[in-house]
Amino acid sequence: MRKIFNIKDFRLCQRGVCNSNMDGRDIVVVMPTGGGKSLTYQLPAVLTPGVTLVISPLISLISDQIMHLQDAGVEAVKLTGSTPKGEQDSINARLGSMANTSGRGSSNGGKDIKLLYCTPEKIAKSKRFVSLLQKLSDADRLARIVIDEAHCVSQLGHDFRPDYQKLHVLRQLFPNVPIMALSATCPPLVLQDLLKVLRLKATVPGEDADRTGTVYFTAPLYRPNLHYQVLPKASEGTKVYAQMVAWILREHADDSGIVYCLSKKDTEKVAAELATRGKIRTGVYHADRSDREKDKLHRDWHRGDVKVVCATIAFGLGIDKGDVRFVIHHSISKSLDGFYQESGRAGRDGKDSDCVLFYRAQDASTLSSMTMGDKDGGVKLNAMLEFAQNLTECRKIQFANYFSHTTNLSMTSWSTSDASARAPCGHCDNCTRTSEAYVDKDVTLEAWQLLRIIEKAQKTGGNVTLAKVAELARSSGKAIGGTARKGKGKHGGAKEQVTVDLDAVCGGKVNLKKEEIEILPGDRIGMAVVSSE
Ligand SMILES: Nc1ncnc2c1ncn2[C@@H]1O[C@H](COP(=O)(O)OP(=O)(O)OP(=O)(O)O)[C@@H](O)[C@H]1O
């Protein structure tokens, strides 16, 4: 480790993961971005005979790893769709010669390939490649298979890739080759799915749990240099741009940052507004940009010619810029996993950085219609909304609760944590907010009213937008939507009588003029923390 990788000591759970690798176990490792996952398979790869196959989603990520490994004198190669034919032939020949020299010896004077990187597409599409791997495996020369960004196998995750799901064939093809899955974000449902899709080994009943099955390592996902805050977002677009420009110029006028937006259109608009209003040098990244444009943006950003990249979530894997001082979310993400991953692109160099979410309730309805068809879309979005609306609990603890795994999964678990893992961070918005900044308010009555209005509209076949419901509810007591009177109900509960005129909203088909809402003692259906910000 010291000689080749110039690393003095292990950190987090690296030692344990290396040992489990040397022991030939199936492994799942969930470690934060920049935590040092690569060493945990690269070191065992140089220490064991045979080749370690690494499956990674992006050619740029692969090229970066190969460059570092070759600089360190490690025999590392890549086979991807863009590898030139001549190079492919030479690598195939080297692998073929390794397959013909079974056992522990070296096939060509110590120049065995130690690490072979490929994309999942290569496994899914190249029969020739798979048959070469089978020859290596039959000759006992395929040391292990490493799957980077392994959460991409699960449809329940935020970054599902169909080609990753096809990796289920690996266990079938290579039943005796250990599989290692790496990720920086893997909430419980995704982990469960990942174990199933990749068919990782379960503990054998009756046998020592420490000796069989998959070993699962987690390190605390908390990164102390990231300062999280949720800021109230103006309801009008133009005010949002002004807010964002003011924040960037005040906090990070000369720094590099990313602004994540919901749509391609938003990225263009936000970039233009930041540039005109704040003279901020912006760039745009989304799926419709050509490869040439994307490459140029990466280069300009690295050089500092572009300071702020306004992007959709397409801008993600493969960002290797350490000094990203802030990540702003112009809108909430579809899930908390996505938000954690995206905001985590700040401060990879370990220096203080800001992660800011601009939140307003309207965005929740936009997102909920976008995620309606997704598997568990609602559940995932709700976790994101809870995070955005929570004004009291430390952000670190919210993440820890969300990502903590209940391991009734048949795995041996090792987690690197210390006594402070569950202590508040002390520096996020909620830790630093004074208690005078908010009030606890019982909003049972309001919540009840909203539900009744929606229920009525639904029953009468009406279609009310969120904004309309809000208008109807707010207009209680005024002339437009209806009237409200407070009194005692027949059960002794507080009674609110609301007259709601839904005719205008539901095309005149609604036969609803009066609605009675009675709140009984003990009926508590809504609580809100209302910020005075
Ligand atoms: N034990 C260690 N001591 C010091 N530096 C280390 C150690 N382990 C890894 N590093 C360094 O930390 C940096 C991040 O490591 P690495 O790229 O493996 O992170 P990662 O977990 O793969 O992150 P990502 O999820 O972003 O890919 C690298 O520069 C690596 O050399």
TrEMBL record:
Residues 243-392 form the Helicase C-terminal domain. Residues 18-204 form the Helicase ATP-binding domain. Its EC number is 5.6.2.4. Keywords: ATP-binding, DNA-binding, Helicase, Hydrolase, Isomerase, Metal-binding, Nucleotide-binding, Nucleus. Transmembrane segments: none annotated. It is an enzyme of class 5 (isomerase). It is found in: Nucleus. One of its GO terms (biological process) is double-strand break repair via homologous recombination. Pfam families: DEAD, Helicase_C, RecQ_Zn_bind. Its main location: nucleus. GO terms for cellular component: chromosome; cytoplasm; nucleus. It comes from the Eukaryota. The keyword DNA-binding applies. InterPro entries: DEAD/DEAH_box_helicase_dom (IPR011545), DNA/RNA_helicase_DEAH_CS (IPR002464), DNA_helicase_ATP-dep_RecQ (IPR004589), Helicase_ATP-bd (IPR014001), Helicase_C-like (IPR001650), P-loop_NTPase (IPR027417), RecQ_Zn-bd (IPR032284), WH-like_DNA-bd_sf (IPR036388). The keyword Ion transport does not apply. It catalyses: Couples ATP hydrolysis with the unwinding of duplex DNA by translocating in the 3'-5' direction; ATP + H2O = ADP + phosphate + H(+). SUPFAM superfamilies: P-loop containing nucleoside triphosphate hydrolases. PANTHER family: ATP-DEPENDENT DNA HELICASE Q1, DNA HELICASE RECQ FAMILY MEMBER. Belongs to the helicase family. RecQ subfamily. This is ATP-dependent DNA helicase. It comes from Rhodocollybia butyracea.
